[in-house]
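Model the whole thing, not chain by chain.
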Amino acid sequence: GGIITQTPKFLIGQEGQKLTLKCQQNFNHDTMYWYRQDSGKGLRLIYYSITENDLQKGDLSEGYDASREKKSSFSLTVTSAQKNEMAVFLCASSSPGGIYAEQFFGPGTRLTVL
Amino acid sequence: GDSVTQTEGLVTLTEGLPVMLNCTYQTIYSNPFLFWYVQHLNESPRLLLKSFTDNKRTEHQGFHATLHKSSSSFHLQKSSAQLSDSALYYCALSDGGSNAKLTFGKGTKLSVKS
């Protein structure tokens, strides 16, 4: 078994601020993901990474940067927080694809922008 | 690109009645993998069941689903709803590629009442 940890659990920022969210996993999984969860809009993929130093854009990458410097960690940066933005950011990881492509999710970071 | 369509919004049921949450998908890949994830309140999404075999029923924790490639569907069913089934349910699609990238539907919230 393994675990995914996300920090911080709650993040409050100001409009225009640059904010960084962090994710660590000890599954030894190759692939990691960042999703944004908004009520009624499902889980939307922001970035994913199939190995250390790899980055792939998802459907919602505009306004975000990501960094995968180690296999176990994956960071997401909100480049300029938008006023009244409120969402949960979920990190996930998975082993190689096909039938084994189960994704395991972290507990989430809840973002509020004032 | 790939897309997943689920029963919209909120489904409210009385305990003991059958559950059916619809999921249809669109993809160019002939061998897609389909998943149902469940997210209880204040928890992370976790895998409920998965399938890649056409017309084969897959079951887990009282829920079942059958992938029908002819109709591009993977509906989630349970014969008798329990209060503890109240949660957010996501249907997701993978092309089976090595990056295990998933496309999620918008989610269906199931509320079971006594």
